[in-house]
Write a structure and sequence with these properties.
38% of the residues lie in helices and 36% in strands. It contains 5 helices and 10 strands; from the N terminus they run H-E-E-H-E-E-E-H-H-E-E-H-E-E-E. It has helices at residues 2-33, 64-84, 134-142, 145-148, 166-191, and strands at residues 35-47, 50-61, 92-94, 98-107, 113-131, 154-156, 160-162, 196-204, 208-210, 230-243. The strands form 2 sheets. Strands 2, 3, 4, 5, 6 and 7 form a 6-stranded antiparallel beta sheet that branches. Strands 1, 8, 9 and 10 form a 4-stranded antiparallel beta sheet that branches.
């Protein structure tokens, strides 16, 4: 008899606890559904304040030392030209010399590629400039044919543009996106006859930097345009509020 009484008591207790858990689950479910999720956008346009530019030049000679000497002459001409255009010597960086052996190659009667005898050396060196004088370096990169006209085999790359105060821009956009999201949430709550409660969750998206009014695609890891001097940055903030 005692065992039966204990079994019934345990069963009853389990039933009561089960009802309690079920009640809490329903309460928590309703509470989680009684929320508003909104996404705010922060946008900022700015002009790059740092530019990098580079170019390369090369020499070919069957004798390695002669190739080095010829390349050194071209390097001095390029350096002097850049300094004459107002570029600081500290901003001019020459890379190490890349040396490539060249061979005469041909296809045999069966069409197979054959590497023939050694024909000489190709020496290439790169010059780079990093400066905050954006307009000056822009003009330099556009008029680099003056170096070519001096008999130097020179290849110029397109400039790359950067912004050194990006951290400040990001903070401003986060504040703007958060304000935008909160205003959207308040409007939704007001239209539904409710009011915002506590902020439950905030999620920040990645920063996207593109050329203004362009059709550049956003990427999952963030886009960072370096080809345009003028830039537009965007960031999203997702906020989730309780609703009273």
């Amino acid at each position: 008899m005692n065992k039966n009484i204990i079994a019934v008591a345990v069963g009853a207790l389990g039933f009561v606890l089960g009802l309690g858990f079920l009640g809490n689950a329903i309460k928590n479910r309703n509470k989680s559904e009684n929320t508003i999720s909104v996404t705010g956008l922060g946008t900022k346009q700015f002009t790059s304040d740092l530019i990098t530019w580079s170019g390369s030049f090369s020499k070919n000679n069957s004798d390695l030392k002669s190739a080095y000497d010829e390349l050194a002459i071209d390097r001095k001409v390029i350096n002097d030209y850049l300094v004459s255009k107002g570029i600081k010597q500290s901003e001019i960086v020459f890379s190490s010399v890349d040396i490539q052996k060249q061979f005469r190659s041909y296809n045999d009667a069966n069409g197979n590629y054959v590497q023939g005898e050694f024909s000489g050396y190709n020496l290439t060196q790169k010059v780079s400039i990093e400066s905050k004088e954006v307009v000056k370096i822009e003009n330099l990169s556009r008029n680099i044919t003056e170096i070519i006209n001096r008999g130097i085999e020179f290849t110029s790359s397109a400039p790359s543009y950067f912004y050194t105060k990006l951290a400040t821009v990001k903070q401003e956009m986060i504040a703007s996106a958060t304000k935008d999201a909160k205003e959207r949430a308040e409007k939704i709550a007001e239209n539904s006859g409710s009011s915002l409660g506590n902020l439950k969750k905030a999620t920040m998206g990645v920063i996207q930097i593109t050329e203004p009014n362009s059709n550049e695609d956003y990427s999952y890891g963030g886009t960072f345009n370096t080809s345009s001097k003028e830039k537009e940055a965007n960031i999203t903030i997702k906020l989730e509020y309780e609703v009273n």
